Amino acid sequence: MEAVCGSVWVTSSLPRSPKSTLSLFRSTHQHLTAFPSQSHLFLYHPPPYANAKTLRARTSSKPAIFLPHLIASLEQVDQTYIMVKPDGVQRGLVGEIISRFEKKGFKLTGLKLFQCSKELAEEHYKDLKQKSFFPKLIDYITSGPVVCMAWEGVGVVASARKLIGATDPLQAEPGTIRGDLAVQTGRNVVHGSDSPENGKREIALWFKEGEVCEWTPVQAPWLRE
């Protein structure tokens, strides 16, 4: 029997018994795999001719997993809250900002134009309540309508922060939203959640029940394996 691994050809005689076939499969399987895993998704399934003693020996050892499967299993779908601030709405930048997230491949699950109340703004920015600029920040967010968005995807929180750019637009890289579209921290166009936990909290704060949609884009198979 001939087998190829990379550019190396291996030639061996065909095993004469089920037991020797199983032994050959084990040695080849262990050689090709990279990392052990406890996940039931990648457990070894023995052939029907394996006896009880063989099954016990196999299940007592750690099963193996191929590297691509390991990487896929680590992917986490997160949610983030993105808000086009009043200056972004007034300047007609809503479509431009939405387009950047769509082109990246993230899924839009919630969208609305909304006039923020003072109470909601204070709850949203409660971690900044002790800052000297807090009153001015609340006045800014409530000065006009904002566009509230919920986005979903693998690594969406971290990726969205990169798309948005640094808080100070003068420090933001060209190609980011703030680097391209804003010039001052006090008018930096857009807000994005800073962690997956805050993403869920902020979506729940700004969207009512039923306003966030669950759906599957037709392009999904072309974005993820």
UniProtKB/TrEMBL annotation:
Pfam families: NDK. GO terms for molecular function: ATP binding; nucleoside diphosphate kinase activity. InterPro entries: NDK-like_dom, NDK-like_dom_sf, Nucleoside_diP_kinase, Nucleoside_diP_kinase_AS. Its EC number is 2.7.4.6. It catalyses: a 2'-deoxyribonucleoside 5'-diphosphate + ATP = a 2'-deoxyribonucleoside 5'-triphosphate + ADP; a ribonucleoside 5'-diphosphate + ATP = a ribonucleoside 5'-triphosphate + ADP. ATP binds at residues 85, 133, 161, 167, 178, 188. SUPFAM superfamilies: Nucleoside diphosphate kinase, NDK. Keywords: ATP-binding, Kinase, Nucleotide-binding, Transferase. The active site is at 191 (pros-phosphohistidine intermediate). PROSITE patterns: NDPK, NDPK_LIKE. GO terms for biological process: CTP biosynthetic process; GTP biosynthetic process; response to hydrogen peroxide; UTP biosynthetic process. Residues 77-214 form the Nucleoside diphosphate kinase-like domain. Its cofactor is Mg(2+). Belongs to the NDK family. This is Nucleoside diphosphate kinase. It comes from Glycine soja (Wild soybean).
